[in-house]
């Protein structure tokens, strides 16, 4: 039974976006696509334990979802032409899975249409393409689950009412549309690299791999776009560290404790090459290019003691001018601690408390600085706050160990 449950979970991670994209292409309706896909997975949960996992789970799910979509169309007495189209789909075998890969790219641009508010674009794409659950998306946006559910519902209704087309935009429209797409892909990648849910794997390679794959597709469409290249480099350099990210005991391993020999040298080389190519253009870098450059500095150091913290801080100074967010300021303070000491850094992050009181990384960073200053009691209290807010099991284990090491 456990093997079947694992197969169902894997199929959901790997096939959700494919099924939704295939149904969106056939029926042009996100509601129908999502509902039918969910029904197909529910049927799999019911039948696979008894019947066994099918040889091609994706094809089985796509066929089942197609039939459920057609049943719904019939129930709702859609127009005759829509009904005929549905009957034709019902009688035909599903397309090979490889043929619908590009449909997911179309689905991204549909969900990221300018007619939608930016929050709706992000949430809808994370749900429809990334396959994240509403609770996972709500945590990513730090909002209530009910509010996130309503946001996604309204976004789908807007797409239907505005007749937003299911296609990749024309070449002249791509630059204006790509920014929100990159934001979505970055959020999908982040959810995979450090999953927010306590009941999921701490690192979800399916999500990081999907984000990288889709970013490569966008780079093929926009080869001269610096931010697309920057995001791809950032993802590659971050993904390269994944093998050293979680210990055998299931604990998150911080950058300063990671086995750098376990990092993926091929991904690092590709990421560094992208960063160098962008620097060679002489064009002022954007946010993702700066973040990629910061990661290039970290992955260039053979040992944490070899890190060029002056360069890291200089890059964060550039980033703050582009993105003066409290989270960027928090990350900058970590570099400040290495150059000017933990007391200076602590003073900097204490000024962020009002904006980051609900963010676990704020308290974890503060706890570490207090520990380095020998203020163990305050450090323990900060660790307790971080542990209470962290949703990732591996991160919670790491924070708990660090707290318990305090005297």
Notes on the structure:
- This protein has helices at 2-27, 30-51, 57-75, 80-91, 101-111, 118-128, 134-141, 145-161, 174-193, 205-221, 226-239, 265-281, 287-300, 309-322, 326-340, 342-350, 353-356, 360-372, 376-389, 393-404.
- With 407 residues, the chain is mainly α.
- Among the domains are: 286-324, no CATH class; 331-407, Serine Threonine Protein Phosphatase 5, Tetratricopeptide repeat (Alpha Horseshoe), CATH 1.25.40.10.
- Helix 6 crosses helix 9.
- The two termini are 45 Å apart.
- Keywords: Sigma factor, Transcription, Transcription regulation.
- Residues 108-159 form the RNA polymerase sigma factor 70 region 4 type domain.
- CATH class of the domain at 331-407 equals Mainly Alpha
CATH superfamily of the domain at 331-407: Tetratricopeptide repeat domain
- The CATH topology label of the domain at 331-407 is Serine Threonine Protein Phosphatase 5, Tetratricopeptide repeat
Residues in helix, %: over 70%
Instruction: Note the quaternary state here.
Output: single chain
Radius of gyration from the CA trace?
23 Å
What percentage of the residues does DSSP assign to strands (E)? under 5%
The SS-based structural class is mainly alpha
The span between the termini is 45 Å
Pfam family, one: Sigma70_r4_2
Domain RNA polymerase sigma factor 70 region 4 type: 108-159
Domain DUF6596: 177-277
Organism: Kibdelosporangium banguiense
